[in-house]
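Give me the 3D structure for dTDP-4-dehydrorhamnose reductase.
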Amino acid sequence: MSGLLVFGRTGQVATELARAVPEARFLGRDEADLSDPAACVRILLASNCDAVINAAAYTAVDRAESEPESAHVVNAAAPTAIAGAAAAVGVPFVHISTDYVFDGSGEAPWNETGPTNPLGVYGKTKLAGEQGIAAAGGQWAVLRTSWVFSAHGGNFVKTMLRLGRERETLRVVADQHGGPTPANGIAAACLTMIQAMLSDRTKGGIYHFSGAPDTSWAGFAREIMAQAELSCRIEDITTAEYPTPARRPANSRLDCHAISRDFGIARPDWRAELNKVLAEIGR
Ligand SMILES: NC(=O)C1=CN([C@@H]2O[C@H](COP(=O)(O)OP(=O)(O)OC[C@H]3O[C@@H](n4cnc5c(N)ncnc54)[C@H](OP(=O)(O)O)[C@@H]3O)[C@@H](O)[C@H]2O)C=CC1
Ligand SMILES: Cc1cn([C@H]2C[C@H](O)[C@@H](COP(=O)(O)OP(=O)(O)O[C@H]3O[C@@H](C)C(=O)[C@@H](O)[C@H]3O)O2)c(=O)[nH]c1=O
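Predicted structure for dTDP-4-dehydrorhamnose reductase (283 residues):
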């Protein structure tokens, strides 16, 4: 896809997009700083692109609690402005959002029409981004995903490997549930959606996509230790026993039937993908 413009270059998903479509144009912070939405618009308008993906975001969940303005500009104002520019030049736009737009009540997987009610600043700003994009018009898709991991960048797998080497026991929350999602699966899903949107200019909307099967952070940690052959024991704890600046949803499970029905995209098995990521990291 030579006419693809991607906001983001260094993140987990952007790195996997670059592997899949190296011929696309990737904009790092040096070239397109999302803190400056007007600059992002100017770059898009001058780019002559055929399609746009936004893989950049303010993803520091706890830090966002003390930097709400910065998080808002990057996660809401910039994607809204980018969507407006994409609509103005008539190219499809795919944006990535999060399970943290939900409050995590109940146990049933959330579908795309479920009521949003973010618990923290990160989720609130991501939701504002979704709403801004929808209001901007044009052809857009928002892919909500969760618990992203890959060999590149910071993520829960990397944290667990580091702590697992240092400690005999780790306490990890067992009452937050969701689907760990490999970044390469998200990149592939974005590209499939862009192709489908280019072929059918009526396609778009909000879609859920996460790895299967659902687990807890403790379950995820236990599988990481087992596959990495680390002897570190994972002790189940409650959210209350692991205080953090940002509240996180207890139920992050995503119902992924719509993306399967409309785009033929299946949930990846995160355990198999974890195996490949660990091999890539050299574990
Ligand atoms: N990580 C996760 O667990 C989840 C992520 N998501 C969403 O998926 C998408 C991709 O996330 P992921 O790949 O994990 O992101 P990462 O946390 O790996 O990377 C974030 C990326 O955004 C860039 N970025 C941050 N601020 C700016 C800015 N002001 N201007 C330009 N670029 C900026 C970073 O650039 P730099 O290297 O310069 O800082 C980096 O490339 C995001 O929309 C995120 O909200 C959804 C669910 C879970
Ligand atoms: C390091 C650690 C974390 N935890 C808990 C804290 C938290 O509830 C959970 C995950 O912690 P993290 O801070 O690594 O993950 P977090 O930054 O909350 O991850 C989120 O990132 C954003 C960008 C998203 O969009 C979400 O889908 C989700 O992936 O694990 C423990 O219980 N024990 C530990 O030793």
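The pocket of dtdp-4-keto-L-rhamnose (ligand 2) is lined by residues 59, 61, 98-100, 146-148, 156, 159, 163, 170-173, 176, 217, 242, 244, 248 (CB under 6 Å). Let me know if you want a second pass.
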